[in-house]
Write a structure and sequence with these properties.
binds iron/sulfur cluster, 298 residues, eight-stranded mixed beta sheet, Transcription Regulator spoIIAA, 2 domains, two-stranded antiparallel ribbon, alpha/beta
Length: 298
């Protein structure tokens, strides 16, 4: 298979066939993100996609789910996505779902009719980096969308029968706005009732704009206490019919997963236990390793 740049995927796509159809990210301006800073956005030639599918048909002919790469393949015009879906079904006839990362801008640029046609072609399970429901935090991260736009576009997706995962970043309002971030993010999530939420905490690598702001003190990171308080407040405010809460990213203070609302009280209790466990570290800012993994939790 052809690949350009590092390939990222959500943990729950571990068994999916990863198929590169774009390189980089069409936005590539989020202040915390370094993933594609040296990879220009391009659409891969369809001949290359077809050759990769021919190869996949030899070693994974029974695959049921394909995950398109890289950062936001849903940015492609609907006609191109439909052509890729057609090639996938032709070469891998057992595929049921074609998933990928998507942004709010990607959805906004598609008509309702296009969204329906793409869904009918098997595209579903979009993984969407909304990050927050607080406009101040979204502006700070340079996400290119507002909370109101997130709600509008996600409701359009729901109307077109899509399931989706929302990526949420705890701590993205910094130490000053952790409470407002939790409250506003809960309002946004409750309004759209996603199938799954995937959480991480804010971190930045050298080279990102946000890293410089953290170093200069212009942006004050959350402590362990603030991150746990924010997680507890967010969980307590979520009113969801049926949603999987998945926080396995290494940047989380604690790994946690379960169904909401069924496991809500258990998860809240786990946050309180973690707060008690970290009593002597609560006012420290987490030290970070690769992918924001927390190094000083023990
Ligand atoms: S966080 Fe997502 S949308 Fe933002 S620059 Fe990175 S890949 Fe692109």
């Amino acid at each position: 298979m052809n690949t350009t740049g590092i390939v990222y995927r959500p943990p729950f796509e571990a068994n999916s066939l990863l198929l590169q159809v774009t390189t980089g990210c069409s936005h590539n301006k989020c202040t915390f993100c370094y993933m594609y800073h040296d990879v220009p956005f391009t659409m891969c030639p369809l001949e290359q996609v077809e050759a990769d599918l021919d190869e996949a048909a030899l070693f994974r002919p029974d695959v049921k789910r394909v995950f398109l790469e890289h950062g936001d393949p849903f940015t492609m015009p609907a006609e191109r996505l439909l052509k890729i879906a057609e090639l996938i079904h032709q070469k891998l006839p057992k595929v049921e779902t074609i998933a990928m990362y998507a942004s709010i801008q990607n959805i906004r640029r598609k008509t309702d009719a296009e969204l329906r046609r793409l869904r009918d072609a098997g595209i579903n399970g979009l993984d969407i980096g909304v990050e927050s429901g607080l406009d101040e935090a979204l502006t700070m991260m340079n996400k290119g969308h507002t909370a109101k736009e997130s709600i509008e576009q996600l409701l359009r997706l729901k109307k077109a029968r899509y399931d989706f995962t929302l990526n949420i970043i705890l701590g993205c309002g910094g130490a000053e706005l952790w409470r407002e971030n939790a409250e506003a993010t809960a309002v946004m999530i409750n309004a759209v009732q996603p199938r799954q939420i995937f959480t991480g905490t804010l971190h930045a690598e050298p080279g990102c704009r946000l890293y410089g702001e953290m170093q200069s003190g212009a942006f004050r990171e959350c402590t362990f206490r603030e991150l746990l308080d924010e997680q507890e407040l967010l969980l307590s405010r979520l009113e969801l019919d049926e949603c999987y809460y998945f926080s396995s990213h290494p940047s989380n203070v604690m790994p946690m997963q379960g169904w909401l609302p069924k496991h809500k009280q258990d998860m809240l209790e786990a946050v309180r236990e973690m707060r008690a466990y970290l009593t002597y570290r609560l006012d420290e800012i987490p030290a970070r390793g690769g992918e924001g993994s927390i190094l000083n939790r023990e």
